[in-house]
């Protein structure tokens, strides 16, 4: 993974040489990515694209809604607005295959030709979901069955059973047919898979139960191993033969061990579908990268993206509908994972909450994405929806086809990006800080059913994602790059600091990864509620944190609520916002800080030297008030430099001697700057202070 920041203040005659060097840098980055990247194996990614010095603004386009006359008008407006790319095909299986085995391409061929003539590239999304009604009618195994045993009609777009063999066979045929047909089309730039895969439903058919049993047999081998993993000795739940296994209730009630395995099974189903499609892409279009609009964190189903993305993704990509900057930034970095390639926002907010919008909001978020290392924003959506599940959703064109102000705003974004792609964008980040996240932990910390309220949820006190965002916030506000990764599936030697916030479940591989990272010289920070259960979602029968007591040099004891906790970090008195704390019992660890308003003044933060590194334990759930001063105590020793200093709500990154500032608030903000500077985007001159208007952005240069 390489970071190439080349000066851009050289004379214009050197611009061509610079771009060649950047292209080479990108090629090296892609080569490094491909070396352990099953999804990229066999790919012949061209050094000129997608790469350094190229940004993309475009839109999602549903030609199924449009006449040929409208398509011609639409493409003319796209070109006029500076759009470089469109995403098409998603959600439209029966547009291409209106009946089984009967494909129709004439209109789409014509549209592809029109896009090429306008100089607009295409993301071709394999529309594997929703499946057509003809498929559900002819192959009832594709229908869902509720956990109460009711057969469900495909009443909404994600009601497909993608574990069904007929569904999988037919979606592969669709992918093969589409990619073969358009493999050599000059407009084709990218392949995507199954829009928002992860946002589906679990199914409880008898066929699903049998497939689940096969999955369990492969995972555990014997009934005895399954009984141990599921703690069946309790509550008279012992399984004697495989056919006694039933599908656990995802909606509860049910033992948590079984619910975790159910979620893992369905995760593997989604991943298997993605791997099927990527094998077809590598066969038919090896020079086109996989950039799919995935939804691994979807609450209904989801999947374990961070453990497996190398098998079907070349770029992290997602639908970006941001709310708060911290949570939105965290989620985008989770999609980037450990990749050296930039993030793609295959669906991008075309307005505000509910998509209707505030002027300037989309432009602000587009530049916010550039701070994170994004390369593309594609508005959702181009034409407003007259009917269907998103009826009344306003796009870049109003319902009567009149261009709205949103189209003008995306034209402004395109003009901004045309300037910035010559000035070091997209950013090639090389973070020194990583945050641990895992699909398994997310499932373990969100059990369902009445017993969850009485036990696990009551104990956890702070939801996992709240801990994760709280740990991320101070570092993000210090304008420091970070990665969000599954620690058991990445090379941790790239990082100086590893933050493990409230990781209730850490399996054996994760435990060993932390141990090795610290032994090799890394610094880890772990917060309360971490390492309580093993990979089977059962509490450790050893001192806690499970498997890591020697690394952290302590034992954690019971959890209490001390009200407003007060501690002192680096001479600074800190009042926490979360009163829960664990009683820490150090052995080899040293106490860095204590609670001053709790009986006995127990440790609030400890540090233990282990191998060449150090392990820090925070007795409370992660909260910004405590994490911020702790991080700042560590920056210098770790060689981590905070980014440009900004007021709250303003984020910034230095890029090749310039600084991009983004005001995410609805208020004007004054930012202190060093001397006189020029706004590349605004053309304004500043001296000592940058005035950013609400939702304002600018790139400052000396």
Biggest β-sheet description: 7 strands, parallel
Whole-number tally of structural domains = 4
Radius of gyration: 26 Å
Structural class by helix and strand composition = alpha/beta
Query: Numbering strands along the chain, what is their spatial order in the largest sheet?
Result: 6-3-2-1-9-8-7
- Report the β-strand fraction as a percent range: 15-25%
- State the CATH class of the largest domain: Alpha Beta
CATH topology of the largest domain: Rossmann fold
What would you say this structure looks like, in words?
The protein is of the alpha/beta class and 702 residues long. The chain has 4 domains: 57-88 and 317-425, no CATH class; 123-314, Alpha-Beta Barrel (TIM Barrel); 433-638, Rossmann fold; 650-701, Immunoglobulin-like (Sandwich), CATH 2.60.40. It contains 20 helices and 25 strands. Strands 6-3-2-1-9-8-7 form a 7-stranded parallel sheet. Strands 11-10-12-13-20-19-18 form a 7-stranded mixed sheet. Strand 8 (343-349), helix 12 and strand 9 (374-380) form a beta-alpha-beta unit. Helix 2 runs parallel beside helix 4, helix 6 (165-182) runs parallel beside helix 9 (256-284) and helix 11 packs across helix 17 (464-477). The radius of gyration is 26 Å and the shape is globular. The two termini are 29 Å apart. Mean pLDDT is 91; it is low at 1-48.
């Amino acid at each position: 993974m390489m970071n190439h920041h080349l000066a851009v203040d050289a004379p214009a005659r050197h611009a061509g040489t610079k771009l060649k060097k950047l292209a080479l840098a990108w090629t090296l980055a892609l080569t490094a990515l491909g070396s352990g990247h099953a999804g990229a194996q066999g790919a012949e990614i061209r050094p000129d694209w997608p790469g350094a010095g190229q940004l993309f603004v475009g839109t999602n386009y549903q030609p199924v809604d449009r006449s040929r006359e409208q398509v011609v008008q639409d493409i003319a407006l796209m070109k006029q607005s500076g759009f470089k790319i469109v995403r098409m095909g998603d959600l439209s299986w029966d547009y291409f295959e209106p009946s089984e085995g009967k494909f129709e391409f004439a209109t789409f061929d014509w549209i592809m030709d029109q896009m090429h003539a306008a100089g607009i590239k295409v993301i071709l999304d394999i529309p594997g979901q929703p499946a057509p009604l003809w498929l559900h009618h002819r192959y009832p195994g594709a229908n869902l069955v509720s956990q109460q045993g009711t057969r469900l009609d495909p009443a909404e777009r994600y009601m497909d059973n993608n574990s069904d063999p007929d569904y999988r066979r037919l979606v592969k045929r669709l992918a093969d047919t589409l990619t073969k047909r358009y493999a050599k089309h000059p407009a084709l730039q990218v392949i995507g898979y199954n829009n928002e895969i992860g946002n589906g439903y679990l199914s409880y058919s008898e066929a699903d139960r049998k497939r689940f049993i096969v999955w369990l047999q492969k995972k555990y081998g014997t009934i005895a191993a399954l009984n141990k993993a599921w703690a069946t000795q309790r509550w008279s739940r012992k399984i004697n033969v495989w056919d006694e296994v039933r599908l656990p209730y995802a909606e509860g009630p049910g033992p948590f061990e079984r619910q975790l395995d159910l979620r893992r099974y369905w995760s593997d189903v989604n991943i298997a579908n993605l791997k099927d499609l990527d094998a077809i892409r590598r066969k038919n279009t090896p020079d086109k990268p996989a950039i799919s609009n995935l939804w691994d964190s979807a609450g209904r189903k989801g999947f374990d993206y961070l453990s497996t993305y190398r098998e079907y993704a070349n770029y992290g990509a997602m639908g970006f509908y941001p709310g708060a900057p911290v949570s939105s930034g965290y989620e985008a970095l989770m999609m980037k994972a450990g990749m050296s390639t930039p993030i793609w926002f295959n669906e991008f907010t075309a307005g505000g909450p509910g998509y209707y919008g505030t002027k300037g909001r989309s432009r602000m978020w587009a530049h916010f994405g550039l701070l994170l290392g994004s390369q593309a924003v594609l508005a959702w959506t181009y034409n407003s929806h007259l009917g269907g599940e998103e009826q009344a959703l306003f796009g870049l064109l109003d319902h009567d086809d009149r261009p709205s102000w949103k189209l003008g705003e995306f034209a402004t974004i395109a003009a901004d990006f045309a300037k910035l792609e010559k000035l070091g964008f997209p950013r090639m980040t090389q973070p020194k800080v990583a945050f641990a996240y895992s699909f398994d932990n997310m499932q373990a910390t969100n059990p369902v059913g009445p017993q969850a309220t009485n036990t696990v949820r009551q104990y956890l006190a702070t939801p996992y994602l709240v801990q994760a965002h709280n740990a991320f916030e101070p570092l993000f506000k210090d304008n420091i790059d970070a990665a969000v990764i599954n620690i058991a599936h990445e090379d941790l030697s790239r990082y100086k600091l590893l933050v493990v916030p409230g990781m209730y479940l850490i399996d054996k591989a994760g435990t060993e990864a932390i141990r090795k990272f610290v032994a090799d010289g890394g610094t880890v920070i772990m917060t309360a509620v971490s390492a309580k259960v093993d990979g089977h979602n059962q509490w450790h029968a050893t001192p806690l944190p499970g498997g890591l007591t020697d690394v952290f040099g302590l034992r954690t004891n019971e959890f209490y609520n001390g009200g407003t906790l007060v501690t002192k970090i680096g001479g600074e008195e800190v009042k926490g916002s979360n009163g829960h704390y664990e009683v820490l019992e150090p052995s080899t660890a040293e106490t860095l800080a204590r609670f001053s308003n709790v009986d006995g003044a127990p440790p609030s933060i400890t540090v233990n030297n282990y191998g060449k590194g150090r392990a820090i334990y925070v007795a409370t759930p992660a909260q910004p008030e405590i994490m911020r001063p702790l991080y700042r105590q560590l920056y210098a020793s770790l060689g981590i430099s905070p980014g440009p200093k900004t007021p709250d709500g303003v984020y910034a990154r230095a890029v090749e001697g310039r600084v991009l500032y983004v005001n995410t608030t609805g208020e004007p903000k004054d930012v202190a700057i060093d001397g006189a500077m020029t706004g590349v985007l605004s053309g304004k001159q500043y001296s000592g202070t940058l005035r950013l208007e609400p939702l304002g952005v600018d790139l400052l240069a000396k």
